[in-house]
């Protein structure tokens, strides 16, 4: 499976030698706290549904992701538009893949830990970041008990949660590892597009395991990737039940660069969304203010 041990890498953003030494010390402290994992929890326990597929897809995906239309000119601009300030923040990139979001976050002064279920994807991420972030093999469908509570200021996830069946447990874990206050920003496939355009059989309200085929002839790759389709309510209910407060729901539109690369899909996405992006907060003070406001009515 590749590297399953403690996180590796340092993030160094300072200019002077003195600042550099201080920054290395802070990042070393950050990664040291993540080494407290009991040995029994350092391994992926159950076979995640998409791990084999993404191990096979990793090389081709890493080669395309920087300018692949749906990623570079649709998903990423939308997710990045929802992020809070980053400098000096501790960020968990949940489902980091080959490290595109990780690199963007690190370049803006964040201390980043990237998690992914695919060892091959993490090899690409480590190569891309060259020690500027830490990485760990992990299954988001399992408890993240190797992470301390209240460790991160932000969780970012691009198109990864669709491969997790139990969002109730997922959001409880992410709420636990976030400080107060903190944010979570994530994107997933849009539930309406998934049901009405791609998997219209059965009931929209069912949680359904489905598959998507990547057929990239130029790379000699054809891979069927399993994931879960769920309703909008099944996305938001566990988020709110975990204690998060919804701040923004974004149904993005593609950029003009997307139109140049894929005019047919551009026309479709200008009519109906393919992805949906969420920004929520963990903020007990804000929750108390809201409760107080209702009590006074």
The CATH top-level class label: Alpha Beta
**Largest beta-sheet characterization:** 7 strands, mixed
Strand content: 15-25%
Number of helices: 11
Number of domains: 1
Do you know the CATH architecture? 3-Layer(aba) Sandwich
Give the spatial strand order of the biggest sheet: 3-2-1-4-5-9-8
SSE class: alpha/beta
DSSP strand tally: 9
What's the quaternary structure here?
A: single chain
Radius of gyration: 19 Å
CATH superfamily: Vaccinia Virus protein VP39
Helix content: 40-55%
Weakly predicted, low-confidence segments: 1-27, 36-44
- Kindly report the CATH topology: Rossmann fold
- How does the overall form come out from the CA principal axes? globular
Overview of this protein structure:
The chain is α/β, with parallel strands linked by helices. It has one domain (17-295): Rossmann fold, CATH 3.40.50. It has eleven helices and nine strands. The chain has helices at 17-33, 51-64, 69-81, 100-107, 119-129, 167-177, 191-198, 232-241, 256-261, 263-271, 284-295, and strands at 90-94, 111-116, 134-137, 152-158, 178-189, 208-216, 221-229, 245-250, 275-282. The strands form two sheets. It has a seven-stranded mixed sheet, with helices on both faces. A two-stranded antiparallel sheet has the order 6-7. Strand 1 (90-94), helix 4 and strand 2 (111-116) form a beta-alpha-beta unit. The protein is globular. The termini are far apart. Residues 1-27 and 36-44 have low confidence and may be disordered.
